Amino acid sequence: MITLASDFGSPYPAAMKGVVCRRSDARIEDVAHDLPRQDVRAAAFWLTQTLPYFPPAVHCAVVDPGVGTDRSALVVRAGDHALVGPDNGVLLPAARELADEVEVFRWAYEDPESSTFHGRDVFAPAAATVHNHGVAGLDELPRTARTDSFVDLWFPDPTVNRDGARGEVLVVDDFGNAITNVSGEELAAHTDETVTVNGRRAPVRRAYAGVEAGEPVVTVGSHGNVELAVNRGRGDDAFDVSPGDAVELRW
Amino acid sequence: MITLASDFGSPYPAAMKGVVCRRSDARIEDVAHDLPRQDVRAAAFWLTQTLPYFPPAVHCAVVDPGVGTDRSALVVRAGDHALVGPDNGVLLPAARELADEVEVFRWAYEDPESSTFHGRDVFAPAAATVHNHGVAGLDELPRTARTDSFVDLWFPDPTVNRDGARGEVLVVDDFGNAITNVSGEELAAHTDETVTVNGRRAPVRRAYAGVEAGEPVVTVGSHGNVELAVNRGRGDDAFDVSPGDAVELRW
Amino acid sequence: MITLASDFGSPYPAAMKGVVCRRSDARIEDVAHDLPRQDVRAAAFWLTQTLPYFPPAVHCAVVDPGVGTDRSALVVRAGDHALVGPDNGVLLPAARELADEVEVFRWAYEDPESSTFHGRDVFAPAAATVHNHGVAGLDELPRTARTDSFVDLWFPDPTVNRDGARGEVLVVDDFGNAITNVSGEELAAHTDETVTVNGRRAPVRRAYAGVEAGEPVVTVGSHGNVELAVNRGRGDDAFDVSPGDAVELRW
């Protein structure tokens, strides 16, 4: 199986699918092609939320503001999975979710057909080759070279004490839920209590529907992190936060 | 085959796909993941317009404002098809399109990984299990219990007489076509005539292109219902209607 | 394999998928269902950018402002590929990319279930039939009749001389890149120089990232044509152009 993720919108991903289908009989499943545009950190986050649910596969993930520059292409091995994409950190957080140890390979490529669409010209062919050859034999491919030098990406750690936590908004999802980097475990002792978020009071509930429609709620999202939400509304608006904003929780 | 429908936008459905792929080798086809958000009636309508075209399959459909509350999970058997989703009525109208008799089963689940994403944690695993076990043997699964107590959903009936019909707008599609609950058969005798819609006159035509671009037209849509449209434009704007609004047709 | 492309948005394409799955066990891959609405020329362009990357397949492409009128349905054979869609020119440019010689067949159909959704009622069934029968045997099908009389579509040719080129914007992609009909080969001699575009100066670079974020850039896109772009921004805004607008390049 080959999964495809990108910020290419439509219809560019179809060319990637065609390239994969020409070179491999792998089943293709789309992860998303509307990842936040050229936002490597957000893309890395969403890959951590989706790829670990798949069976062993080759995951081709392309959010690549540096396309056409001399940034490298990488293949990352994570257990039975491989991730293929640009060397800008986008692959690493999900790889670490998939396996305790990850190995990073540089993928050599020359003269792609275009300098603007390496998803089609570099990464899709690489994914098909890795799939056909097998993740176990990645070292033997003529284009791979193991490396310790690559762009890494870590999400920031929150600070937590007995009175609360200070973190930040990692991403806002399509529903308007503001997903923070604070672990939901910190909130577990405060379910059904009221906390303050950046100075404003809000109830902690297990489900969005734990408050009336239109009311703000602090909950633990499907990612296991503290999430600022509104039942049937947008949490980012109600809490006035955007990705990267600081979040001060006090209980 | 397992079909997936939801209002989850992107990229959450990818986690559902991963869960299905891990537990089953079923082919997956997406119905839609941008169903009108948390709008159970609109979702139920769109399922009636899409699921009956599929061969026998397990249809996992999740529009679920009550996620995380104590609402049940259902599996509905409709002939060779099964529908899996929350107990809020969303599955029933499509099930009745698929078969004359439907059987409803409660699906027991405990302690999902999250209280906000049962699409991933409850319904996708249930769909994979039902698929693997086969729709015919649904009764034998340890998690199923037949029930007569569930939330049902019926679309309202229009009133029709010799002078016209009074109904309502069920949904507005992406094109801006306002789809009513009035059967197109009522309109058949008036093709190429002019009718009034909420007091304004509009031509009845078999095709959008039966009027000039930008002109309003009353037609019978692909669902067999009366539709308020504009050739190459938006019918909801031209007729000033939204889902739920009354529609008075006079011929 | 059957590919599907349309401007139907969501969820109508699911009915097409269902119809195909009922009639064929072909693998289905989506090209796009958000092609610019009822814009035959833009759709034709995007098909040229995507279909040639696929292995031999039946490509069902429906952008069809004339649905329900007496316009014909076509099947176009292009080498090992077949294209199925309305007789409005949308299929021809991609067919010519797929093969040096193309053969056009009229596809006879009667009484579709609807007069507004031939994607479901005419073209999806036709694609399944062509797939099952095989592209080679297209002549033998009872519904096909070879024809020389069909609506064709050609993209306009630019005029090029030693001082520059005069062309037009064919389409604007999701990123805001304005894609012209001027071949990138004309620009090759001017890489890293500055040119004027409709009187305003802009640098020519091989990659978007060849200029600072927010800066305009003239480049050669993945289609091989001159593209007006902004690094991490929208070229159509910066160069103030829309599809169909004239573009005067001077070097």
From TrEMBL, chains A, B, C:
Domain (S-adenosyl-l-methionine hydroxide adenosyltransferase N-terminal): residue spans on this chain: 2-133
Gene3D superfamilies on file: Bacterial fluorinating enzyme like, S-adenosyl-l-methionine hydroxide adenosyltransferase, N-terminal
Keywords: S-adenosyl-L-methionine
InterPro entries, alphabetized: SAM_HAT_C, SAM_HAT_N, SAM_OH_AdoTrfase, SAM_OH_AdoTrfase_C_sf, SAM_OH_AdoTrfase_N_sf
Domain S-adenosyl-l-methionine hydroxide adenosyltransferase C-terminal: 167-248
Origin superkingdom: Archaea
PANTHER family, A to Z: CHLORINASE MJ1651
Family: Belongs to the SAM hydrolase / SAM-dependent halogenase family.
Name of protein: SAM-dependent chlorinase/fluorinase
Organism for this UniProt entry: Haloarcula onubensis
